Amino acid sequence: MFKRSLLSRSIAASIALAGLPMLAQAQDTQDEPLLEEVVVTGIRASLNQAIDIKRESMDVMDSIVAEDIGKLPDNNVVESLQRVAGVQVTDRAGGETNVVSIRGLTDVSTTVNGRTIFTASGRAVALADIPSTLVSRVDVIKNRSAETYENGIAGQIDVHTFRPFDFDGSRVSVSARGIYLEEAEAVNPTISALFSDRWDTGAGEFGALVNLSYSETEYRDQSTTPGAQVPFIAQGRDLPDDPNILDGNGNVVDQRYVDLQRIFPTRPGVQENPIWTAGLENGLPTAQGSTLDINGDPAEYYISRDAMFMSDFTGERERPAANVSLQFAPNDRSEYTFEAFYNGYRNEGFNSLNFAFVDWWGSLGGLSDDVTDTFELYEGTNVIKERTIRDGFTFGSGDYSTGKTDSYVYALGGDWELTDKLNLKSELVYQDSEFESSFIAMRSTNVRYETYANFSDKPSIEFRDNPATPDVDEGDQSDISQYAMAEMYDSGTRNEGSAVTFTADAEYFTDGAFFKKIDFGIRHDVRDATEFSRTQDAAPCDVVNTTGDAANCQFSTYEGDGIAHINSGFMDALNVPRTWAVVDGPYLKANRDYFTGLYGLDANDPLLEEFAIEETNTALYVDAEFETEIAGKRLDGQVGVRYVDVTTDTVFTDQVDLSQTEGSTDNQELLSFLSLRYNLTDELIARFNYGETLRMPAFGDLNPTITYFDDITNIGYGTATGGNADLQPTTSQNYDLSLEWYFGDASNAYVTLFQRDIEGLVVGFRNRVNRQIEGYDTDTFILSQPDNASDGELSGVEVGFNYFPENLEGYWDGLGVQSSFTFLDSEQVNPVTNSAGEVTAYEKGPMFGVSDTSYSVAVAYERDTFDARLAYVWREDFLNNNEAALFANPLGVYRDAQSSLDFQFSYNVSDELIVTFDATNLTEEVYQSRYGNSYLHTFGNWQISRTFALGARYSF
Question: For every residue of 812-855, which 3-state class applies, written as one string?
Answer without folding.
Answer: HCCEEEEEEEEEEEEEEEEEEECCCCCEEEEEEECCCCCCCEEE
